[in-house]
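Intended use. Records like the one below are meant for learning the mapping from a protein sequence to its folded structure. Do not use them to infer anything beyond what is encoded.
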Amino acid sequence: MRKLSNTNFYSLKDSEDIFLIHKENKNFIKYKEFVSDIVRSLEYISKYKEDTITVFIEDAYRFIAIITAGFILKKRVNVLNNNSPKYVESIIDNTMVYISDTENSALNLDEVFESKCNDKWFDVLKETIIDENVYVNFYTSGSTGYPKLIEKTLKQFEAEATKIVNQFTENIKDSLFLYTVPHYHSYGFVFAVLVPFMLETKCINNRINYLETVNNFADYEKITIVTTPAFLKRIDKSSLKIKSKWYLFSSTGMLEEKVNDLCKEIFSTDVTEIYGSTEAGAMAYRRRSENQLWTRLSVVKLKVDENGSIECCSGYTGENVWIHVGDVVNMKNGDEFELLGREDSIVKIEGKRISVQQIDRQILMDKRFKDSYTIYCKSDKREYIASFIVMNNKDRNSEDMKKYVIDYLKGYFETVVLPKKIYFVDSIPRSEIGKIDRKALDAIMEGN
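Structure written out for the chain above:
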């Protein structure tokens, strides 16, 4: 199986085969062009003595070329998950080179990719294979909003991608890969970069933002879409004009059953949900029409601690390394489990145990509400939960609706665990892959 770490890129320097297709499906990038752009990147990155390059590049093709050059030069590659100025400022120091498609970049990427190739780097490629033990580290902020660096090797990511290929080969081989998830998140890196490269199948050069873009690929019989619940929640049947044999991966959060039903109506297939984390990688999957429970991937070992929290060990977490994932589960047998929620979603209010996700699920059972997110809060004087709710009809009186919410929830929960504060918002603040922005929620609370 082909991997970044076992590919001799020199052997591809004259290849006319297609590497990536532009998402408008009007142009494409050949492997020989990709190799030339690696050579251009090597010329510029090699001038820096620092061991680490820290990267945020929106353009997926340029991202792949730059990090591949970094791997060849045995640089540690740190991947940022956003490029907001203060966020970048909090991370970048004099031990690393920042490479981005913004003005703060140490390299001007337009200059790099328009430069002439220095032939000496082709000679280097002739003798060089990427070391699988190079580090490619992803920053993640989870719900805290503060950057956390997850350190992993390319070998670990390729082991995860290999498992995905082996598990789902029949469904995804000979398929065009489209994706809506950013390549600078670990899920996108594995499923939208490494997996298509291993399969030697065609992939687009950048993520799509709208389902309508898929219509550019009417001539493909099989299409795999790597996406998220946040994207699938927004799709509309009228947007899809073409027919294909579809396969859908979704991760970064649980998919609501009604959204899966919508996907079955539009694509005539279930969504394959992937359960995992940046630290642990892909751990389990489910297709709702086959099983409502999550099934572990065969290379993954799972166990629960005394509090019911799941832990994971696999070939891509490191030998005998167990990762505490932070989710509470109900293990049904050695292979299957029910996901109950985050550890921090199950709280005690005045001695009463409650899952804040239960509150959200119940709120969303009422058609007056479009979205909901409930959090646990603690002050010097008390502990309570607060709910952020998006109404379907925003013209309703908010005070009347707050009373309605409380009266409605009283039918399902004890009074002591009901939300003490309710905020009606235009939308729940989430990142581009659907993760909750807790700092934004705190700002809403502070402003009220």
